[in-house]
Amino acid sequence: MKLASLKHGRDGSLVVVSKDLSRATSASAVAPTLQAALDDWANCEPKLEALYEELNAGSSESFAFDPAACDAPLPRAYHWADASAYVTHVELVRKARGAELPESFWVDPLMYMGASDAFIGPHDDVLVESEDWGIDLEAEVAVFTDDVPAGTPAHLAGKHIKLVALVNDVSLRNLIPAELGKQFGFYQSKPWTAFTPVAVTPDELGDAWVDNKLHLPLIAKVNNVQLGAPNAGVDMTFDFAQLIAHAAKSRSLMTGTVIGSGTVSNKGSLLGSCCLAEVRCLETIASGKPSTPFLSFGDSVQIDMLDEEGKSIFGQIDQKIVKHTPPE
Amino acid sequence: MKLASLKHGRDGSLVVVSKDLSRATSASAVAPTLQAALDDWANCEPKLEALYEELNAGSSESFAFDPAACDAPLPRAYHWADASAYVTHVELVRKARGAELPESFWVDPLMYMGASDAFIGPHDDVLVESEDWGIDLEAEVAVFTDDVPAGTPAHLAGKHIKLVALVNDVSLRNLIPAELGKQFGFYQSKPWTAFTPVAVTPDELGDAWVDNKLHLPLIAKVNNVQLGAPNAGVDMTFDFAQLIAHAAKSRSLMTGTVIGSGTVSNKGSLLGSCCLAEVRCLETIASGKPSTPFLSFGDSVQIDMLDEEGKSIFGQIDQKIVKHTPPE
């Protein structure tokens, strides 16, 4: 099934969306918000599935689905852990600056805690104070879990994946070196995270969801020009079950935890890239310096994934970079 | 005023607690949960204050307040940012391992994003799988904010502080070096965060709340033996307004954001320490190696702060370290 949160208050209003993303129906009789549904998933899931079947059969009250009216599926969440599971990307970034990749990076996932209190919708502006901060997109896959007990091993973690969506993990590249140098991880350099209009249950992905990975090209565009479409199922060093097990090693994860894959990247980048940093690293390796700039105010970012029939699965992220003026 | 959340479902049940911590009254007529109150603070605050005045005057229905029945004031929050604002502590830790403190640490706050989806109550067990992970307490002060616009400067940030509480930021010391080495910040090494029974409005602190700092000794004990009582208002390099401004530099903070001070520490540690790591660093500097062990299963931790009359302001954190058996 496909779920979305229409903009409404702080937590949105839960709707069920038709498979073809054309129609929606209110889920308020089941749960007012997606977090409320996840809080009682065993009870809510079958009721939401029933609504989804009725909606697809055209037998329920519905209205036209407008992606621009969507907030993030969880407009605010209690936990957002973003990994860097495509180690080939990390290797490339390091190569561009002449640094070695520690061997441990192939067996021990990189993961940071991100800001989950203000996820943004698929068409929301990305507000940034300065272009000098090096504004970049990062196209990723993310999963939403239910409650995961502390110490859950990877072989038991996959069953905790309840929903899947795509993400634009906005990154401020020029703030990253100083933050990583302090060793406390990303903070100011990871300001906003945007989500596709809908999140879907794994069964909705059919054969493309295998081994806790999503085996389809992830399309990233800047100003509607394709930057890349690497396959999210290829070169993912750690699958989502392994990422969940990593996140839950020393404590439990509460329902509604969102775990991101990190920038999708295929070895050699033959199908292009999902962030400008990778493009700039390739340029640096090839010719000594980057030639592609980071994003400017007015630029737009599109992120999408198509099924085998060429239809969008999650709807599209389509958002503009806009200058933010802070309070004085 | 003083607020607490009694254990009830995922978000607790909001109560107003009397100044002397002896009585409580339900706040459900104002807001069912503390997060709900913070979501509409301008409207809820005066109503909660009115309840508090009635309770202290003995003119409202009330019941005996039981700290052991408390969850964290926000049992789950959308944002938990923990700083390391007592740079003298960082300097000491570095000195013990023979490392220099970068000059920038005195002007640019250290801050990491922590896990906010499962805060624990003042009397909850701290569940850890292995003593080999190096279990430690960290006694801290924390503030709860309302909505903070992106780019809010420090001189405007103090007014966003709505509540203050004490924290035990449980740390797994032996997991830290590998995580910091990866530069993505703490994750598995910061499993649980416990809070005092009540959070209080800054006005409740009187003259002790000056310049966005809490000028009172923070008492930390292990097995009811005092480890230290450094003054939280002394040697705090960055006050809470500066920490909020740091956290909000590139994005807004949503209401209910919790910002921690980091382990309270006074230069020279003459009044003792708020974590075992600091004790061990002092031992290492004095005699080449640490002699105080980290916490063992069965050990307990107490954290408290007294007013000028010797009465507890927030109630006491009093919790036991207990072995956790993960699923197989």
From TrEMBL, chains A, B:
Pfam assignment, any one: FAA_hydrolase
Cross-referenced InterPro entries: FAA_hydro_N, Fumarylacetoacetase-like_C, Fumarylacetoacetase_C_sf
Gene3D superfamilies the record matches: Fumarylacetoacetase-like, C-terminal domain
Record-level Gene Ontology MF annotations: hydrolase activity
Domain Fumarylacetoacetase N-terminal: 1-76
Hydrolase keyword on record: yes
The entry's keywords: Hydrolase
Residue stretches making up the Fumarylacetoacetase-like C-terminal domain: 80-317
Protein name from the UniProt record: Fumarylacetoacetate (FAA) hydrolase
Native source organism of the sequence: Umboniibacter marinipuniceus
